[in-house]
Design goal:
mainly alpha, 10 helices, elongated
């Protein structure tokens, strides 16, 4: 029996074009992602630089505002109470520092308090119109701080009273009661009651006093409100009493002479 040697079948050669395409994708494919990666990296670097620059500028602004605040306090605390000229100079210099903080560094944490102090300095300098403008500027820019906003409204009401504008003063005090989070609502009630009492509106004044007494029993204004309420009750009872009838005047006695 004869044996035949089996010859393995020849494998077909790989398509040369397919091979080159695969090699090209393997070698040059990553290059297609290099440009987007570089662009993305550049954007990240630029964003980091911008954020860092903003942070640096803000930090510089805070430091400058703090230095101006310290200068203003040095002028206000200088021992010059016995010299009116030095007092006026200190007020002007402190006012200038506070105004610089407000105008040049409004985004710093010191700006709200600086604006408040600026308005107070203007009141002290008897520049009431400028003080009203400063207080209103505070309320429009920093009303998110209710505790300080309530104090500003109260100060604004006092300035309106100095200007003789009771209506605006009442509106400013009423705004304290309408703003959640204010800490001087008891004093606002007391001041509103006093304004009503000064206008001889005893019913409205009594209602304000009673609201203060019931809502804020531990307030330092409650004791005086209680006294004022009692005084108004006494006056009211006296006014309601009927007028006493006055006695008839006595007729003068005749002083005629006797006939002899």
């Amino acid at each position: 029996m004869s044996y035949r040697i089996k010859v393995p079948a020849k494998t077909l050669p790989i398509d040369e074009a397919h091979m080159m395409s695969w090699v090209d994708q393997t070698l040059h494919g990553p290059q297609n992602y290099v440009r987007p990666l570089l662009v993305g990296l550049g954007v990240l670097v630029l964003a980091a630089a911008v954020v860092g620059g903003v942070f640096y500028v803000d930090r510089q602004a805070v430091e400058k505002a703090q230095e101006l605040e310290r200068e203003a306090m040095r002028f206000l605390t200088a021992p010059s109470a016995n010299d009116p000229q030095k007092v006026d100079h200190a007020i002007k210099e402190a006012t200038a520092r506070y105004r610089q903080i407000v105008d040049q560094y409004p985004r710093t944490p010191m700006a709200p308090l600086a604006l408040y102090h600026l308005a107070n300095m203007l009141v002290q300098a008897n520049d009431l119109s400028a003080a009203v403008e400063a207080y209103q500027r505070f309320l429009s820019s920093y009303s998110s701080n209710p505790s300080l906003a309530g104090l500003v409204q109260q100060r604004l009401a006092y300035v309106y009273l100095l200007k003789g504008d009771r209506e605006q003063a009442v509106k400013a005090l009423s705004s304290i009661l309408e703003t959640p989070g204010t800490l001087n609502r008891d004093q606002a009630l007391f001041e509103l009651a006093r304004l009503e009492e000064s206008q001889s509106r005893t019913e409205a004044a009594g209602a304000r006093y009673q609201e203060l007494i019931k809502t804020y029993p531990n307030s330092p204004f409650t004791s005086e409100a209680t006294i004022r309420t009692k005084i108004m009750d006494v006056k009211k009872s006296q006014e309601s009493m009927p007028a006493s009838t006055s006695p008839a005047p006595a007729t003068p006695s005749s002083t005629g002479k006797k006939n002899p």
